[in-house]
Design a protein that fits this description.
alpha+beta; 5 strands; five-stranded mixed β-sheet; Ubiquitin-like (UB roll); 2 helices
Length: 107
């Protein structure tokens, strides 16, 4: 099975600046094993030493999130698109204009 792994800009460095790379495997785990053989530095950014998705990585197979259940067993069909999105969290209200801050009253 041949699929496409679509990469955010932050990970393209590890794929020779490519926005997408081919991956081969019937499951997400098999496809990432294939990636590990060809682009190990990229694969290490996606999975930890136990082969699990890193907490800050979000993956979607044909638009469906794989965070729940058993992500590595997710089927990856021929021609599927596997999209990687870095998780976004945190932040601070410091420096936000009072007019834009949702918790402050603007006088």
């Amino acid at each position: 099975m041949t699929s496409r792994l679509l990469l955010p800009a932050a990970l393209r460095h590890y794929a020779g600046e490519q926005a997408e790379v081919e991956i081969h495997g019937a499951t997400l785990g098999a496809a990432l094993d294939d990636l590990a053989e060809r682009l190990p530095q990229l694969e290490r950014r996606l999975r930890d030493e136990q082969g699990r998705l890193r907490p800050h990585v979000l993956m979607f197979v044909d638009g469906v999130s794989v965070r729940t259940g058993t992500p590595m067993e997710t089927p990856v069909g021929d021609g599927a698109e596997v999209f990687v999105a870095p998780a976004v969290s945190g932040g601070s209200a410091k420096g936000i204009s009072p007019a834009l801050h949702p918790l402050r009253e603007v006088s």
